[in-house]
Fold this protein.
Amino acid sequence: MSDHNFFRDGNLKLVGSGPLISRERLGSVLNYNFSGRDKFDEFYVQRNGGYFLEPAFFYRDMFYSTPSSDYNRMYVEGFYFVPLS
């Protein structure tokens, strides 16, 4: 498994993951495109899910403009794995 860190905070550790999944299998399970699909695929091919040992916060305004009246911070505990069958 790769040690590549997808997150800005190098101390943020994602542990546990599902079984290794190929890009082809991932594409057959999730057969639609969206903005950021390449990064999504890269993450799941290397990790296939996982959970954080420490609280993780994602800020929407790092990715796109948000009105100041909108909630910006999102707490994330982990990501589901994609099953192989």
Notes: The CA atoms of residues 73 and 79 lie 17 Å apart. Strands lie at 14-15, 50-59, 73-79. The chain has a mean pLDDT of 85. The longest helix spans residues 37-46.
